[in-house]
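Job type: complex structure
Entries:
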Amino acid sequence: MAATQEQLAYLIDMAAQMRLQIVRMMGPKKVHHFGGSLSATDIVTALYFYKMNYDPQNPTWPDRDRFVMSKGHSVPAQYAALALKGVIPLAELSTLKRLGSRLQGHPAMHHTPGIEACTGMLGEGLSFSNGLALAARIRGQDYRVYCLMGDGELQEGQVWEAAMTTPSRQLSSVTAILDRNRLKSQDDPNTAKIMDPMDRRWQSFGWVTREIDGHDMAQICDALDWATEPRTQPAMIIANTVKGKGVSFFEGQAKYHNAQITEEEFQRALAELSPAVVEKG
Amino acid sequence: MSPMTDTRMAYGEALAELGESNPDVVVLDADLYNSTRTVLFRDKFPKRFFDMGISEADMASTAAGLAAAGMTPFINSFAIFATSICYLPVRTQIAYPNLRVIVAGSSAGLTQGPDGASHQSLEDISLMRGLPNMTVIVPADALETRQAVFAAAECPGPVYLRLGRYPVPDLNAPDYQFKIGKAVTLRDGNQVTLFATGHMVTKAVEAHEILAQAGISARVVNVSTIKPLDEAAVLQLARETGLLFSVEEHSIIGGLGSALAEYLSGQANVPRLVRLGVRDEFGESGVAEELLVRHRLTGPLIAEDVQAAL
């Protein structure tokens, strides 16, 4: 199965809408995680609007595929997807991180419909995903679990405990995706710890890997289809991404990891993102 | 004298029994299944048992995933690892969303013995008690342990179950009914009340006998649920005697003594509370009995402290 040209056009348009929603919900003059949300946008779009078996009318359906946003600070990308899917109202997005909002600064499964895990403590999402997959095996369910991690997150030791568990239990229903934007909150992850070669690390742990451009929708869809082919080993998709993708002055800038932007920057960002939506939409 | 059993043994047997009636129960261990006695569950239900290896945090987060999908996981390790290494996932992935995961901390306290301070958890109750949604249970004997296992599996949220490897006699009558959040008077008395938990309930009962011979009437209350504290019972019992003691195999900071002090400090007309336990220090290698003497947590030494305070 491959995504058709028509599907790809739809997904590219959806990703543009996602980016606009993400920047809009964050707005100016408040501190938000712009960079990682925007680097993950195309991947999250492909999961919700192409790959996952998911019924927005019934987000607690026991057999749904699960998406675990392990890099929890990027949850605005998931909120945007849930809103565009109709799981939560679009109008609710503007309540992000406000007192009393269901849209917490980091994912909270008990607050927000469609959120599958409490993450934000980096490094815990893959273990959690393994648990979801083990439950499916015990109960004879066939849902799949997609876990998105950041490259900075991989410096947390628990990731590698989990990375040993998944192949050991042959949990190939788990797909890991790495949003490798090559910037953590301060700088390049390689400044603190050597992160390469990334593919061989995962391969040596028992995973199959594929490296893609995480902003090329055709490559993302192909990789997701490849990841779910029948095999005993779990798959890791290493998606090379650009932090802040879609807003020129955010791109590749660590300072927009968690930043407060001015009204003027906000308007410039909207101006860059809006034509993409109008053109395609 | 009834036969002596340690609570971890009773736990292992109860868990294997629970597995029969409750198909949602899954058990995870971190390379200690012989010590924690989850080996009994493993042998009966191999498909619902997962040895996660020496990866306690991974074990806790995996359990959260299992619970989110509707299972009832019990995670197992020594108390020190189950509460310290697992603390972050237990906090954020389990307690925060109020998932039913039972954290079973085995070989807790000084009576862990020869392994020394690194393995003697004296602050685990404190760590778990500070978490919203968390229930904290420290059973006193085999029967209570067994019932606590079954009760924990029905609790709507997470439970910390503190277990030990120190043999204790049966303290409760065969018809005893454990209830989460219920403190139970085991020995009556009208001069002093000893609130005790876990292994120390046995020691408090011994102290009661010794004090009785000296003409001192000491009540012994088993506070097996430290959170939620049985506040109504504690207040009533506290007002009936002139002096209160807490007795625990734990630091006097953050455990039963603290829980009582926090509650009673907000109440009028309550007597003084003396906290017995480990006085803000690390443990050390030794056999259980030696360590209990060193920290004045034996029946005779508790009785001595009570007499001194009266």
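Summary: The mean pLDDT of chain B is 97. The CA atoms of residues 147 and 178 of chain B lie 6 Å apart.
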